[in-house]
Amino acid sequence: MKKLLNAFEALFLIRAIETEGTVTKTSLPLIFETEWGHLGIIPCDGAEPTLKALGSARSFLKKYPQAKVAIACRTDTASTRDYSTFIIPYYWLS
To answer: Would you state the torsion angle of the CA atoms of residues 59, 18, 67, 90, taken in this order, to the nearest 10 degrees?
Structure first.
């Protein structure tokens, strides 16, 4: 995934957007910006989102309140955390 992100960054298709977290700056690895708003995608290794992933999502949504965040985890079903945060199976991105 990291190599793919680096390739897209090299082509200027995406860029990381840093947002202010509660303790440090956080960075979402993949953000799409369209005329409808922003969509941030956060990868996660476990079946459930980590505290770090949820914190990154909160920080991003604080900066972009109208945005949506998808946290891609090792799960088979999609679910919602709230109006702006969704948990999706990571294989949906492949």
So the answer is: -90
Mapping DSSP onto H, E and C, the string for the chain reads: CHHHHHHHHHCCCCCCEEEECCCCEEEECEEEEECCEEEEEEECCCCCCCHHHHHHHHHHHHHCCCCEEEEEECCCCCEECCCCEEEEEHHHHC
pTM: 0.72
pLDDT tens digits, 11-36: 544 455 555 545 556 667 788 888 88
Least Cα distance to 67 among 29, 27, 37 occurs for: 37
